[in-house]
Amino acid sequence: MPRLWKVGDLAGRCGLTVRTLHHYDETGLLRPSGRTGSAHGSGHRLYGPADVARLQQILSLKALGFSLGQIREALSREDYDPRRVVRLHLERVRGQFAELKSLEARLAGLSDALDRSETVSADDFLATIEGMTMFEKYYTPEQIEYLVRRREEVGEEAIRRGPEQWADLQAEVKAAMDAGVGPEEPCAADLARRWFDLIAAFTGGDPGLFRSLKAMYENEDRIRGMDVAAMRPMMDWIGKAAEAAGVRHPGM
User: Fold this and answer.
1) What Rg do the C-alpha atoms of the chain give, in angstroms?
2) Residue 24 belongs to a domain with what CATH number?
3) Which of 13, 56, 57, 142, CA to CA, is 20 to 30 A from 192?
């Protein structure tokens, strides 16, 4: 006989409230397989293995940003594939894990410094706070999930080369600006195209991601230790060069 869980037992095991499971039942999102000791369905709710599997899917979809109405609609589709939901949730968790590992390293450094009674600079604290809040501030859960997949698509070698390519290109742009090259000149258009190509390599050409990235660089002075404020004159120059040459940016 398959195992059955009472509503309180299932709620406690899953870290949910009984009220949440009652709500899922009342809205038709997760109806229990049976009830205790009543032929009229008025006994205590009993949940079976299939109900537990459905609950896992509900919570995964909820973690991916779906509303309860959207979850109910998705689960009712004939072509619904629970394997895809698990894979998407796994990819998102892996992305979050990578961010947490980076944050772990920063916190470990702070902890060691404090244990040695060393003075920790405000910049170190700010860098740690930045790691805690930066991505969630500008990117939606769906965009973070996409970036995780994008990283796998382009491969670790391309990810490793990215910062070097950006550093080289920024050096070229700065040299052109220092030499008095105007944004309307042909060489400026070439630099703008290469600039946008690197952005597209990161975003995969997704306009929404470009807008999120642009907002982050427009509003933050430092991103993971990088002096973004110092980059803004270059970004303005690239924007003017692109406009003068009719170069389409990745957000169009």
Assistant:
1) 25
2) 1.10.1660.10
3) 142
Q: How many CB atoms lie within 10 A of CB 195?
A: 25
Q: Report the number of distinct structural domains present in the chain.
A: 3
**Model pTM greater than 0.70?**
no
- Helix then strand then coil, % of the chain, to nearest 5: 70, 5, 25
Task: Tell me which residue range forms the domain holding 36.
Answer: 5-75
Element (H, E) at 80: none
Report d(CA 20, CA 58) in Å as an integer: 12
Cβ density class 164-185: b for 16+ within 10 Å, e for less: eebeebbeebeebbeeebebee
Per-residue model confidence as pLDDT tens digits over 3-50: 899 999 999 888 888 999 999 999 999 999 988 875 555 678 999 999
Residues 161 and 236 in one domain: yes
Instruction: Give the C-alpha separation, 114 to 92, whole Å.
Output: 33
